[in-house]
Specification:
Layout (H helix, E strand, L loop, with lengths): L4 H6 L10 E5 L6 H10 L3 E6 L7 H6 L3 E4 L16 E4 L8 H19 L3 E7 L30 H19 L3 E6 L2 E3 L2 E2 H10 L4 E4 L5 E2 L2 E2 H12 L7 E5 L5 E2 H12 L5 E4 L11 H5 L8 H12 L6
Helix pairs in contact: 2-7, 4-5, 6-8, 8-10
Length: 317
């Protein structure tokens, strides 16, 4: 369990960021939206950036105190970005099959945004998808990189464009003297989103859930509450040259684990389909993250129960 008394004692309290002009990109996505609204509630002026092709996406953010602006990282369209941004949190990502589009949006775009804003600090959300899997050995920040997401249907550009983004962010931050941190996020989830929801839908329909042949298919899922709490800790690592840090929850849990737990909660029986055409286990080593004093509080079983209670209470036993 992640919230043991020992871990609570070890955690160092770090003040939440306040009084800053913060630009959060990818704000219509799962991860960035809660971060933006939490920062707005903490006394920051928050600009939530996305393409906003659907104007209706603005309303819930603006009702939470986030000022929405339209940008396009792929096309370097930043005309609505205000001046004097203190902190940029880049969560935008394009999951596309076209490498040119992926490089433009995921790598060139963040570098161009850094050139424009010249912030005091820049946080770039990367992914543990950049690692080359090595059985179930925890991956440290200096371990070999690789194309781990290539086997996953529909994600041929993801790992490579994420690696390219890290290179450009590091180069641009060093050239401009901007303190930056690259946080390699593992499996994010929350009360109303996450990979687990798709697996629950498959279980409900009797569809076998893909798992890697080299089982268990393990990760370190981190709940939205802890993602929000961790932002000041991550920013404490911002430096020149850029610091890279793994970002995940305390507990190692596999697809097999959370599907079995969802089965216990709902009475559904998971079936698994071992295959090489999916993502292998990636367990990040969190030593550097823990060195900031951060510890996650929401263990994955509690998080799953909250998620199902929020999204599918009708399935609970």
């Amino acid at each position: 369990m992640s919230d043991t008394p020992e871990q609570q004692v070890q955690e160092i309290s770090r003040p939440q960021m306040t009084g800053k002009r913060v630009l959060v990109t990818g704000v219509t996505g799962w991860v960035a939206g809660p971060v933006a609204t939490a920062l707005a509630a903490s006394g920051n002026t928050v600009y939530g950036a996305a393409r906003f092709r659907d104007p209706a996406q603005r309303e819930p953010l603006e009702s939470s105190g986030v000022q929405t602006i339209s940008i396009d990282l792929q096309k370097a369209r930043f005309d609505e970005v205000p001046n004097d941004i203190d902190v940029v949190l880049n969560f935008a990502v394009a999951k596309v099959n076209d490498f040119e589009v992926a490089f433009a949006a995921n790598a060139e775009g963040p570098a161009a945004l850094m050139e424009l804003c010249r912030p005091e600090m820049f946080l770039h959300c990367s992914s543990t998808a950049v690692y080359a899997p090595d059985d179930h050995k925890p991956r440290r920040e200096n371990d070999p990189l690789g194309d781990s997401h290539r086997p996953m249907p529909g994600m041929p550009t993801y790992s490579i464009s994420k690696i390219a983004a890290e290179v450009l962010v590091k180069y641009t931050a060093r050239r401009l003297g901007i303190p930056a941190v690259i946080a390699r996020l593992n499996v994010p989830y929350g009360d109303a989103y996450g990979w687990m929801m798709f697996h629950l839908m498959m279980m409900e329909r009797g569809i076998p859930v893909p798992v890697h042949v080299n089982q268990p298919t393990s990760y370190t899922p981190i709940h939205s509450d802890d993602i929000v709490r961790s932002i000041p800790y991550l920013l404490s690592l911002a430096s020149v040259p850029t610091t890279i840090v793994n970002w995940g929850g305390e507990d190692v849990a596999g697809i097999e684990d959370w599907c079995t737990e969802m089965g216990r909660l709902t009475g559904l029986t998971p079936e698994f389909a071992p295959t090489e055409a999916t993502i292998a286990a990636i367990v990040p080593d969190l030593t550097k993250l823990h060195s900031t004093g951060f510890r996650s509080h929401v263990d994955w079983r509690t998080g799953l129960a909250r998620q199902i209670s929020t999204t599918r209470p009708d399935l609970l036993k």
